[in-house]
Predict the structure.
Amino acid sequence: VGVVESGGGSVQPGGSLRLSCRASGFTFSGGFLRWYRQTPGTEPELIADIDPAGNEIWYAGSVKGRFTISRDNSKNMGYLQMDNLMVDDSAIYFCNARSFWGQGTQVTVSS
C-alpha cells in the first residue's frame, strides 16, 4: 500500500525526464496528486499538484512552463514531465497522494 516513484536519472542541462508515481492499495482517484522535491538540508518543496479529476493544476514558479503534471486514474498512475532541465532542478523528487509518500527518485542535472 502506497506510492512508488520512478524515472529519475542523470541528464545534461536542457534535457528531459519523465517521472512516474505508481499508487496501490488505496483510492488514488480520490485525492490530489502532488510532486515535491528536496535537496540536502532543506524542507521538501511543493512544485506541482493536480486535483482528482485532473482539471485543476498548480505549479511553483520555479518549474512553471517547463514541467507538466498529469495523472491516469484508470491506471493509478501519476506523472511529472520535466523539460528544459536546469542544474537547480537536481533533487530527490517525491510524489504524495492521499497520506502516502514514496521513497523518492533522484534527479541530477549536470554538464
